[in-house]
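Sample intake — HPr kinase/phosphorylase
Collected from: Novosphingobium aquiterrae
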Amino acid sequence: MSLLVNVSAVAIGGRGVLIEGPPGSGKSSLALALIDRGAKLIGDDGLTLARSGERLVASAPPNVEGLLEVRNVGLLSYPVAQAAPLCLILRLDPEAPRFVDAAEWVAIEGVTLPLIRLWPDSPALPLRAEAALRCWGLDA
């Protein structure tokens, strides 16, 4: 079991999406926008990862479970997905390529996951995140 910090995660249809990027890049904002579109919060600014067979399952550490930092508003409570298998990593990256032929692949705890880089300053960012999950995400 390991703990990742400076990441957020949501579950969309039972599929975990890990959101990573430097501090201030919009991880929590993307999580908030996806929650507004029906996703469930897994965790914000910290995740516990545990291997389950060939999958990596994400959950929130107990001290931050259900809490999401909404910049300029505060620390707010949201319903949570207790745990979900990670199916995609989204990296908020101002140098993200305009077009990709395939996802990159990243190994965490011995589990290989698809990674898509997204330009963080798009008003359509939650739509792009959902499209990336449809196109490149693993099945739950």
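Post-analysis note: Helices lie at 27-36, 125-136.
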